[in-house]
Amino acid sequence: MEWSFQSAERLAAALRAGDVTSAELTDEAIARIERDDKVINAICVPDFDRARDAARGADQARARGEDRPLLGIPVTVKESYNIAGLPTTWGMPQHANYLPAQDAVQVSRLKAAGAVVLGKTNVPVGLQDIQSFNEIYGTTNNPWDHGRTPGGSSGGSAAALACGFGALSIGSDLAGSLRTPAHFCGVYAHKPTLGLAATRGMVAPGAPALPTDLDLAVVGPMARTARDLALLLDVMAGPDPLTGGVAHTVALPPARHERLADFRVLVLDEHPLLATGSAVRAGVHRVADALVDAGARVERHTALLPDLTDAATLYTQLLFSGSVARFPVEAYEQLRTRAAGLSADDRSLDATRLRAMVFSHRDWIEANNRRELHRHGWRQLFAEFDAVVCPITPTPAFGHDHNPDPLERRIDVDGVEYPYFDQLVLAGLATMAGLPATAIPAGRSPVGLPVGVQLIGPMFEDRTPLRLAELLEQRIGGFQAPT
Shortest CA distance to 461 belongs to which of 429, 427, 434, 431? Predict the structure, then answer.
């Protein structure tokens, strides 16, 4: 039997039953990578010798009667996580030889759960792109169309899953970096509630791996089934043992409902600042139709929804004010000069991005206060609804675009061009407020590309969108291997 596309849940059952060994699963995964990854380039740092050692250790542990959630299951890890003895570069040539001495806390949790780490997956430079390419490791291609991107910044992980290179992967998300690659590659991903999973060691090369609380950014699971997402989230969730973990443990509430018919869902298929392409709109409607057919309460409008234009503006301000915090003084002064030259009437997202890059601390505090008002608005909405279904980006995977100035790139939405970074506003809907969001496959575009949608849930009720994802998978189907 070929195991490469089986779920982690199925592999765990087979390992417990003695139908297969971890060594066999690992050898099969490595053989597939060596055969197929030449054209995909998802695994940028293989660690096959240590993977085989870990697999043998997992088999020995099982023979002694041990059982852990991921014991013996092959997985991959986004390049941006520290793994002792492997390079962490974030795709930046100046850090090509940086080797961290310790594992990131999430890598430690994977290993403690028994997972076998096959290697690290490719990323964009500095994790700051919606694609995955860099000078060190080259370009990762979309498994469905090699001329297109798998997304970013967790694009290598999504491509690896779509190709059967391990059953699970871990990534991170600041601007859709888990959800967009899942959408582009036809797999599943979950952006946890902000602060739910410790991030220590998912840090730029050379920076100290401190237990800091990041703004907007999270780490989270990727998989080929919704149930596998929940399995991996249980391994990842919890505060850092150096800080909150001293006093706190995590006990996520159960999903609000167990049947589709009981869910109350708000469906959004448009945004006031960005058109939704027809292929993605069809995916949203497919999910909405499945919910209606199952008897769920589905609404398309509510006065409770926070203002989407203000939300997009606020997200852009928070995201880009943080992105330039470590810019050299000369570069910062150039940005200030450009921002000063903007017309006071220019309220475009491009202008918002530029102004945010030169925010004062007072500006940021004001934006943060506005964010709290939005969070309160979401709490009120989720008193009446259980989840929100909406797009992740306006289009399926787009063609590789390596223009060195991202501000010159454009995204084509059914023949209309938008600034490249405008497509982030859809993912930012959940990110700005710190809400959990699960990316699920929702069909194919007319040319056969995967299309996904996101299920946004209430803060710290991650099990609700995860359970909804599982029920929808049973109704509309889920992952399909690339053809």
Answer: 434
Tell me how many degrees the CA angle 201-405-332 measures, rounded to the nearest 5: 70
Encoding tokens for residue 325?
């915090």
205 neighbors 92 (Cβ within 8 angstroms): yes
Packing angle of the helix pair 308-323, 349-356 (nearest 10 deg): 40
> CATH 3.90.1300.10 in the chain, residues?
8-257
Strands (E), 70-227: 74-78, 116-121, 133-134, 138-139, 168-173, 188-191, 218-223
Pairing status of strand 168-173 against strand 218-223: antiparallel
123-132: string of b/e by CB count within 10 Å (b at 16+)? bbbebbbbbb
Alpha-carbon span 24 to 56, nearest angstrom: 10
Residue whose tokens read 């997992």: 58
Pairing of strands 410-413, 416-419: antiparallel
Q: CA of 149: how far to CAs of 39, 168, 400, in Å?
A: 13, 20, 5
Report the alpha-carbon distance of residue 353 to residue 159 in Å, rounded.
Answer: 30
Rg, Å, the chain Cα set: 21
- Comparing C-alpha atoms, which of 126, 170, 132, 172 is closest to residue 151? 132
If residue 163 lies in a helix (H) or strand (E), which one and from where to where?
A: none
- What does the alpha-carbon distance between residue 132 and residue 454 come to, in Å, rounded to a whole number? 21
Contact of 168 with 222, CB cutoff 8 Å: yes
Rounded distance between C-alpha atoms, residue 206 and residue 229, angstroms: 30
**φ, ψ of residue 45 in degrees (nearest 5):** -130, 90
Quick: pLDDT tens for 4-43: 999 999 999 999 999 999 999 999 999 999 999 999 999 9
Element (H, E) at 437: strand 437-444
Q: What is the DSSP letter of 223?
A: E
Strand-pairing partners, residue 450, are: 444
CA distances from 296 to 24, 259, 287, 427 (A): 43, 9, 11, 24
Report d(CA 166, CA 153) in Å as an integer. 19
| pLDDT tens digits, one per residue of 296-346 | 999 999 999 999 999 999 999 999 998 887 788 888 899 999 999 999 999
Catalytic sites, residue numbers: 78, 153, 177
- One of 3.10.350.10, 3.30.1360.120, 3.90.1300.10, 1.10.10.60 is the CATH number of 8-257, namely 3.90.1300.10
